[in-house]
C-alpha cells in the first residue's frame, strides 16, 4: 500500500515538472540560416519568423519586407554571392585561334634586325669569316644566348657549304628550318585549364618579378579562357600592391569573371586558398591566381610564394605555374627565371612585351635555361594582345 502511495506521488511530481517547463520555455521557432554567403544575414523576428518570448518585436521601419522567394529554405544551400556585370555590358574577347597571325606584323616589326638581318647576311655571295661573325653578333644581340648561337652558326655553315650557290628562297627556307629547330617545336605548349574529374577547378599560379606584366597577363588570360567558354575565378593574391587587386577586379568585370580579394597586406596564401574554395563552390573550370611582384633576392618573399603553392596544394596539385618574364629585360630575365624555378616548379613561360624589343631570341634562351616551354606571348597593351606561342608562326614572322 505504502509503495503505491509513493509511486502516485512521484508520478504527480513528474507531471507537474513537465507542465512548468512547458509554461516557462520561450515559444520561439528557430530558423537556422544556411552557413556562409547571403544565408548568414541576421534574421528578423516578425519578418522572417513569428516573434517569440524575449524577441524584440519592434521591427525597424526601413526593414525591407521579404517575400516567400527571399526566405532561405532549410537544408537548401544558397549559391555564393557574386557581383555580376549585366550580360549586355560584357565584352566579347577575341577568339584565340589565329591571334598570333593578327599580331604577327607587330612581332616581325620588332624583330627586323634578327630576321631580316640574318637573311641579308646569308644572302651575300661569299660568306667570309667576318660575315659569320656578323651572323653570330646578330644572334647574340637578339639574346639567343651563347650556346644556341654557336650551334646555329655551326649548322648554317655546314648547310651553306653543301648548298653552294644559293637563291634567296633557299636561304630563307634554310634559315626558317634552323630557327624552328632552335625554338623546339616539339615541346607541349598546352595550358592545363580543364576541371578535374572530382570537380576541382584547374589551378594556374602566375608568378614573376614586379612590372613584368603579371596582373595584365592574368587579365588577358582570363579573356582567352572566357573566349573558350570556360568559367573562370580570379584570385588577387598580390596583396602587397593595393592597386593590383583593383586592376584585376576590373579585368574580371569586363568579361564577367569574379575576383576573390583580401584586405591590403592580407596573407596571400589565404587569399589564394579562398579563391580556390570559391572556384570549387562555383564549379569553375579554372582558378587563376595572381601573386605579388617580388624581387628574386628577397628570401622571405620567395618563401611566401612557396607557401602560396603549398596551401593551394592542400586541395590537390597546382596544374600550371606560369612564370611571366619581360622580354625587354634580356639576360636579367634569365636570372629571374632560374631563381623562381628553384622555389616553384615552373611549367610554362609567358614572355611579355615582345612587341617592344628586338630581343626575340630570349624565347630560345629561356627555354634552354629552364627546359620549360614558352606557352604565351604578350604583344601589346591591348586586352586581347596575348597569344598562344606557336613556333612556326613565330619563325615565319622573323623571316618573312
Ligand atoms: N607593350 C606591352 N606592354 C605590356 C605587355 N604586358 C604588360 N604590359 C604593360 O606592362 C606594365 C606592367 O604590367 P602589370 O601587369 O601591372 O605588371 P605586374 O607584373 O603585375 O606588376 P606588379 O603588380 O607590380 O607585380 C603595364 O603598363 C602593362 O600594360 C605587353 O605584352 N606589351
TrEMBL record:
SRP54-type proteins GTP-binding domain: residues covered: 373-386
Enzyme Commission number(s) of this protein: 3.6.5.4
Keyword hit for Nucleotide-binding: yes
Region named Disordered: 31-54
A Gene Ontology molecular function term of the record: GTPase activity
Oligomer status and interactors: Part of the signal recognition particle protein translocation system, which is composed of SRP and FtsY.
Protein name: Signal recognition particle receptor FtsY
Gene field: ftsY
Amino acid at each position: 500500500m505504502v509503495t503505491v502511495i509513493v509511486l502516485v506521488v512521484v508520478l504527480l511530481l513528474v507531471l507537474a515538472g513537465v507542465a512548468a517547463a512547458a509554461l516557462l520555455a520561450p515559444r520561439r521557432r528557430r530558423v537556422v540560416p544556411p552557413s556562409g554567403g547571403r544565408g548568414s544575414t541576421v534574421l528578423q523576428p516578425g519578418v522572417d519568423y513569428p516573434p517569440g518570448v524575449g524577441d524584440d518585436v519592434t521591427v525597424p521601419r526601413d526593414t525591407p519586407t521579404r517575400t516567400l522567394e527571399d526566405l532561405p529554405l532549410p537544408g537548401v544551400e544558397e549559391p555564393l554571392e557574386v557581383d555580376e556585370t549585366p550580360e549586355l555590358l560584357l565584352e566579347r574577347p577575341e577568339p584565340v585561334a589565329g591571334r598570333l597571325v593578327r599580331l604577327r606584323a607587330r612581332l616581325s616589326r620588332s624583330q627586323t634586325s634578327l630576321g631580316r638581318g640574318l637573311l641579308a647576311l646569308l644572302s651575300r655571295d661569299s660568306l667570309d669569316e667576318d660575315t659569320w661573325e656578323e651572323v653570330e653578333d646578330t644572334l647574340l644581340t637578339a639574346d639567343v644566348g651563347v650556346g644556341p648561337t654557336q650551334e646555329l652558326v655551326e649548322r648554317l655553315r655546314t648547310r651553306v657549304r653543301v648548298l653552294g650557290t644559293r637563291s634567296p628562297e633557299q636561304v630563307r627556307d634554310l634559315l626558317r628550318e634552323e630557327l624552328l629547330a632552335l625554338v623546339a617545336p616539339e615541346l607541349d605548349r598546352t595550358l592545363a585549364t580543364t576541371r578535374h574529374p572530382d570537380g576541382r577547378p584547374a589551378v594556374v599560379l602566375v608568378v614573376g618579378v614586379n612590372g613584368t606584366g603579371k596582373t595584365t597577363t592574368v587579365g588577358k588570360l582570363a579573356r582567352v579562357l572566357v573566349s573558350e567558354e570556360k568559367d573562370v575565378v580570379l584570385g588577387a593574391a598580390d596583396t602587397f600592391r593595393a592597386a593590383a587587386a583593383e586592376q584585376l577586379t576590373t579585368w574580371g568585370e569586363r568579361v564577367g569573371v569574379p575576383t576573390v580579394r583580401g584586405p591590403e597586406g592580407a596573407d596571400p596564401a589565404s587569399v589564394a586558398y579562398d579563391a580556390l574554395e570559391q572556384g570549387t563552390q562555383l564549379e569553375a573550370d579554372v582558378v587563376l591566381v595572381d601573386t605579388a611582384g617580388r624581387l628574386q633576392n628577397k628570401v622571405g618573399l620567395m618563401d611566401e610564394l612557396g607557401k602560396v603553392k603549398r596551401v593551394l596544394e592542400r586541395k590537390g596539385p597546382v596544374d600550371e605555374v606560369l612564370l611571366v618574364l619581360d622580354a625587354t629585360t634580356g639576360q636579367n630575365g634569365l636570372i629571374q627565371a632560374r631563381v623562381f624555378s628553384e622555389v616553384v616548379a615552373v611549367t610554362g613561360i609567358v614572355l611579355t612585351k615582345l612587341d617592344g624589343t628586338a630581343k626575340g631570341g630570349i624565347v630560345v634562351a629561356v627555354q634552354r635555361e629552364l627546359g620549360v616551354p614558352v606557352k604565351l606571348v604578350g604583344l601589346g597593351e591591348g586586352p586581347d594582345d596575348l597569344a598562344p606561342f606557336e613556333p612556326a608562326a613565330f619563325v615565319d614572322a622573323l623571316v618573312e
